[in-house]
Amino acid sequence: MVMRSVYQPATAMKASLIVLMLVAGAAIAGPSSASAQTDATAEGSTEYRQLVQQALDEFQRGNWDEAAGLFAQAHRLSPSARTLRGMGLSAFEGRQYVASLEHLRAALLSTVNPLTVKQRQEIEETVSRAERYVAKLQLTVTPDSAEVFVNDQPVPNNGGERLVILDPGPVEVRAVSPGHQLALRQLRMVSGAHQHLELRLAPAAGSETGKGAATGTSHFPYATFGWLSVGLAGASGVSSVIAWRVREDAAGQWNDEECRLVRPTDPKAATCSGISDQVSTAETVIVVTAIGAGVFIGSAVLFFVLDGTQNDGATAQACTGGPGELGLQCGFKF
């Protein structure tokens, strides 16, 4: 199979195919090993020729998936650098860059019906382009023994490092480990991006890991007490405001009654005494509630800090993305 350029007209591709058939026929007629004769026979078969012609036609129409599938069928009949080239170029045009790199690199290495100098140059340029289009996802998983799947494909653990080459688009990352909860993340990979994802699997309820954590402070409801403290601080603040308002009203009444001038024997003495008690009580409430609000706010801060500390083992995520050195850095913890 000869494809001088994936962008040439269909007539030129057909002419190349005719030349290929003549060369294949000559190879069959000449002396060769048994395996070479078998490959040449398969390559010269009617089924192979039909598959290649159909693949070229679909490629010319822009039906990349169909072309890749037909080239793959021809490759099963007679694997060679040319069929790998067709599969790789079809995958590239279909934006399946990971598969394209696999096929094109194999085509460069294949010695069966090898590529011409011009074809090798074309494939090397396409490989260089595809390498810039793929996205890289680096995974850090705790515990390190967890099984990780990206789009349902297992990701091997190479000495604690898991690097996945992906096509741009949506990605599902799943991590499982005995005694831990399932970790599931949905991402969208950008062409040329290099992202880092950190997964910390939380202990499963009832597991040995979870039981060990339960003996410490990992399950203490710090957050609940924190929010309760916030509520009490708010209530104390409201009470302080109300007491201040009562004190101001009582002080105003004291002034209106001119209690400073009232003698103990005056009829207003009892009234002024009650107003004075009311002012004193209000001032006491103001002081107590203000102090209480401060204590509750401090308690809330402390509880939230402790809650954050005990959740250090929870799932966390961090990522860096963007082509080259540019991109967005972000972090999530929950």
Tell me about this structure.
It contains ten helices and nine strands. It is α+β, with helices and mostly antiparallel strands and 334 residues long. The chain folds into three domains: 124 residues, Tetratricopeptide repeat domain (Serine Threonine Protein Phosphatase 5, Tetratricopeptide repeat); 68 residues, Immunoglobulin-like; 91 residues. The protein has a four-stranded antiparallel beta sheet, with no helix packed on it. Strands 4-1-7 form a three-stranded mixed beta sheet, with no helix packed on it. The two termini are 56 Å apart.
Indicate the CATH architecture of the largest domain.
Alpha Horseshoe
**Record field, number of beta strands:** 9
The residue-averaged pLDDT reads: 78
Percentage of residues in helical conformation:
55-70%
Tally the helices: what do you get?
Answer: 10
Question: Strand content of the residues, in percent?
Answer: 15-25%
Structural class: alpha+beta
How far apart the termini lie comes to: 56 Å
CATH class of the largest domain: Mainly Alpha
The strands making up the biggest β-sheet line up spatially as 3-2-5-6
Question: Could you give the topology of this structure?
Answer:
Elements: H1 10-29, H2 34-43, H3 46-61, H4 64-77, H5 81-93, H6 97-109, H7 117-133, E1 135-142, E2 147-150, E3 153-154, E4 162-166, E5 169-176, E6 183-189, E7 194-200, H8 208-214, H9 222-256, H10 269-310, E8 316-321, E9 328-333
Compact overview of the structure:
This protein is α+β, with helices and mostly antiparallel strands. The chain has helices at about 10-30, 35-45, 45-60, 65-75, 80-95, 95-110, 115-135, 210-215, 220-255, 270-310; strands spanning about 135-140, 145-150, 155, 160-165, 170-175, 185-190, 195-200, 315-320, 330-334.
